[in-house]
Amino acid sequence: MYILKNEFIWITIILVGLFFSSSTPYSDQSIVSPLERFDWGWAEPVLADIDFEYDGSPVSLEAKGTVGLIEFLIRKAAHFTIFFILGALFVKAVARVRLHAGLILLFAWTLANTVAIYDEFHQSLTPERTPLIQDVVLDSVGALCGVLLVGGIYLAKRKGKRRSRAGYVTTR
Predict the structure, then answer these.
(1) How far apart are CA 144 and CA 121, in angstroms?
(2) CA distance 69 to 74
(3) C-alpha angle 80/84/57, rounded to 5°?
(4) Among 38, 46, 113, 155, which has the minimal tally of Cβ within 10 Å of its Cβ?
């Protein structure tokens, strides 16, 4: 059970996974082939409404095709989710140090952003990979959401502990 509760182990696992992913060429990571095995016709009405630019390229059903658009959305959701989790874990790790609550959140977010920047730099060294500032921004937003969620919970618990130590009675 210690492994499940230790945020440092999970941070390490995520960092190793990011390092491995960043050093793998796109062609070795592509999930297009497995996605092509499914009939995505049911999703096309929803996907038809998606139309924006990412890194100067159109992202739409017309531009990418059904499977290409789904793969793009999965990849970007993975960016957001991984950094959401990383930001949350950094809050738990940094909270062990007695700092002002705002500094804990800022430091955790800064650590996650540093990882995002390094991850994109690392991709620049890998064939078939392109470092994108948009991915850093996406990672940063994911990390910010994780930091704010877990940070808010942490701050609420910390405030409750201070109240109980100060002699306030809480009723439920």
Answers:
(1) 20
(2) 9
(3) 15
(4) 46
Tell me the C-alpha distance between 141 and 30, whole Å: 24
Q: Which residues pair with 58 in a beta bridge?
A: 53
- Looking up tokens 């100060």 gives 166
Per residue in 43-101, pLDDT tens? 999 999 999 999 999 999 999 999 999 999 999 999 999 999 999 999 999 988 888 88
pTM assigned to the model: 0.84
Tell how far CA 134 is from the center of its chain. 13
3-state SS, 48-90, equals CCCEEEECCEEEEHHHHHHHHHHHHHHHHHHHHHHHHHHHHHH
Give the per-residue pLDDT at 72: 96
Question: Beta strands 57-60 and 51-54: pairing type?
Answer: antiparallel
Q: Are 29 and 21 in contact (CB under 8 A)?
A: yes
- Cα separation values, 168 from 33, 113, 163, Å: 60, 39, 5
Residue 140 and residue 90 in contact, taking contact as beta carbons nearer than 8 Å: no
